Amino acid sequence: MSFLTIEKVYNAYALFYDQLFGKIFHPGRHRGADIINKNAPNGANVLELGVGTGLSLPLYRPDLNVYGIDISEKMLKKAEKRVHSEKIKANISLKLMDAEHLEFEDNFFDSVVALYVASVVSDIDKFLSEICRVCRPDGEVIFVNHFASENRALNAIEKKIGRIHSVVGFKSDFSIDSILNYENLQVLSCYNTNLFGYWKVLHCKLT
Q1: CA 134 → CA 104, 111, 141, distances in Å?
Q2: pLDDT, tens digit, for every residue of 169-194?
Q3: Cα-flanking dihedrals φ and ψ of residue 40, to 5°?
């Protein structure tokens, strides 16, 4: 998917994203934020990629500096409203930005969180390269995402849906191997999450 296609799809999603994906994806958001809250040093810089409407922002510790980026301006406007309406205590900075071209210095972040975004980007290698560039050595990277099923029947369905990824806004047949085999990331743990455990939480460290 091109940048413009992704932007268009998620600007449309902004109208009903919270109703459609809020509750069903919340366990994964909680698990990702819990890992950060447990391990991040005091006052750490945390980058959340694909922050969307900001559903995860109330979950972070008050002392953290959380930078949320997204390519959808309409999603970010909803996130900004959430920061104010829910009086979120963490230091939140929201920016319109492409996750494959991050406008941050090298080694700036203590932790990076990618919630439901790895299967959306157009170039997974560029995406992972940028994560590794902006995260400090030995920093933590958390992925929460759906990955292609090992079940043959489910995988066949995912491949069919994958043919219309420009409409649904994500790759339903996205392989976990893209992350497991990435040379600069070490997977520390993997958990199933959300409805029927169909999504996974990958807790990684930069090597």
Answers
A1: 6, 9, 11
A2: 445 457 899 999 999 999 999 999 99
A3: -70, 140
| Residue from 34, 32, 26 nearest 53 by CA | 26
Contact (CB, 8 A) for 111 and 48: no
CA-nearest of 28, 29, 50 to 196 is 28
pTM above 0.70, yes or no: yes
When pLDDT is cut at 50, 70 and 90, the band that residue 82 belongs to is very high
73-to-21, 163, 204 alpha-carbon distances in Å: 18, 26, 29
Q: Which amino acid, one-letter code, is at 4?
A: L
**pLDDT given for residue 150 in this prediction:** 54
Give the chain's mean pLDDT.
87
Tokens of 123: 């170039």
* DSSP classification of residue 57: G
Tokens of 64: 């953290």
Burial 65-75 (b: 16+ CB within 10 A, else e): bbbbbbbbebb
Residue with tokens 């970010």: 76
Which residues constitute the domain of residue 23?
3-206
On whether the CB atoms of residues 61 and 40 are closer than 8 A, the answer is yes
Question: Domains in the chain: how many in total?
Answer: 1
User: What CATH code is carried by the domain that includes residue 134?
Assistant: 3.40.50.150
For 88-108, what is each residue's pLDDT tens digit?
999 999 999 999 999 999 999
